């Protein structure tokens, strides 16, 4: 029997040999690369580990052991932009018919304030001396008391642009820097900033005669505005109407969904470390509870692309207020701005329709039927 004559496939063998050599070369190249860059890998690993430790261990421990830091984060009153400005001169901010003044709320608390006159006064009578501004408050033109959000001052750009808008619509505009903000003395707390707002409201009431006061709060200022409105309504001293721009329902939810909390939100101890500590510092701003006592007409403005106070929180506040309106209260309305308009958290004043919205709001407040 003949033995089969198998001929080796020389090409296949050569190919396998070549592939083996290539694999070996690749492994050798990788090993050499790893050996050469090992210090860099180790450094990167150390930095990554340290960063994760600081974020997920260091920061929570620091916050829980130093709860005083949270009010500074919430109020952010030390973040002042633009810096190095003279708040005693509203003209430096482009407010041509405005004056600066100060009010002593209590011992060691003096708050800086601005009063911007309606545009028609400037057009009809020109420059008004600062000492005559208070007299103008009783001229029958409506007053907006503006209560700003956290960080910055009464001179922050987006706030100044809103004052100009309201003045152009022929309203008086009065605004303050809460205690600890701008050139105001003191340290901000929830009760303290509401007290400042209450003080300026009562100061205005003593000077306006039959003129009507409307409240406008933005961001954190909506928490101040809603709580102030609750106090005033309980006293029977109702504001004429309330505008809440970019509001939240309560501080617990606002803190939970703020972008700064994103790295910590999934931690099992997030509530205990951050939210409970906020409560321990007396920071609640429960607008969804306060609004139940607010009887005047309310207009809520919120942009869908708000990254600081999520749109959903404004809707939650609206639905809470809407569900509790009775025949003894006026209406609440929600005005949404599409996300592709780019108004975000601060730029709703740029909306072309905002003037008409304000005029319609005033009409609804004064003629609800």
Automatic annotation (TrEMBL):
Gene Ontology CC: one annotated term: endoplasmic reticulum membrane
InterPro entries per UniProt: AB_hydrolase_1, AB_hydrolase_fold
Transmembrane region(s): 41-63
Spans annotated as Disordered: 1-23
Highest taxon above the source species: Eukaryota
Residues annotated as domain AB hydrolase-1: 143-236
Keywords: Membrane, Transmembrane, Transmembrane helix
Protein name: AB hydrolase-1 domain-containing protein
GO MF annotation: an example: phosphatidylcholine lysophospholipase activity
Protein's GO biological process: monoacylglycerol catabolic process; phosphatidylserine catabolic process
């Amino acid at each position: 029997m003949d033995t089969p004559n198998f001929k080796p496939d020389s090409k296949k063998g050569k190919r396998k040999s070549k592939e083996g050599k290539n694999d070996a070369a690749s492994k050798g190249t990788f090993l050499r690369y790893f050996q050469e860059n090992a210090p860099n890998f180790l450094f990167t690993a150390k930095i990554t580990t340290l960063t994760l430790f600081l974020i997920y261990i260091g920061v929570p421990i620091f916050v829980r052991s130093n709860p005083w830091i949270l009010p500074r984060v919430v109020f952010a009153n030390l973040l002042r932009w633009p810096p190095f400005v003279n708040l005693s001169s509203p003209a430096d901010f482009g407010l041509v018919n405005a004056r600066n003044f100060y009010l002593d709320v209590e011992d060691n608390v003096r708050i800086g304030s601005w009063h911007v006159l309606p545009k028609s006064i400037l057009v009809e009578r020109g420059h008004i001396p600062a000492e005559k501004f208070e007299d103008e408050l009783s001229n029958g033109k409506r007053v907006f008391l503006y209560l700003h959000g956290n960080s910055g001052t009464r001179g922050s750009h987006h706030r100044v642009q809103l004052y100009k808008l309201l003045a152009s619509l022929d309203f008086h505009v009065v605004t303050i820097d809460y205690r600890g903000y701008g050139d105001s003395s003191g340290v901000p707390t929830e009760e303290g900033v509401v007290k400042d707002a209450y003080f300026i409201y009562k100061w205005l009431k003593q000077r306006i005669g039959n003129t009507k006061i409307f409240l406008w709060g933005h961001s954190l200022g909506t928490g101040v505005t809603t709580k102030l409105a609750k106090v005033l309504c309980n006293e029977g001293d109702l504001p004429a109407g309330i505008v809440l721009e970019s509001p939240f329902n309560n501080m617990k939810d606002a803190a939970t969904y703020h972008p700064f909390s994103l790295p910590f939100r999934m931690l099992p101890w997030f509530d205990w470390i951050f939210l409970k500590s906020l409560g321990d510092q007396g920071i609640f701003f429960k607008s969804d509870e306060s609004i139940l006592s607010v009887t005047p007409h309310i207009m809520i403005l919120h942009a869908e692309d708000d990254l600081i106070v999520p749109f959903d929180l404004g809707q939650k506040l609206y639905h809470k207020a809407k569900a509790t309106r009775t025949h003894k209260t006026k209406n609440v309305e929600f005005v949404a701005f599409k996300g592709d308009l780019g108004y975000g958290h601060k730029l709703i004043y740029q909306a072309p329709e905002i003037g008409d919205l304000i005029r319609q709001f005033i009409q609804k407040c004064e003629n609800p039927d």
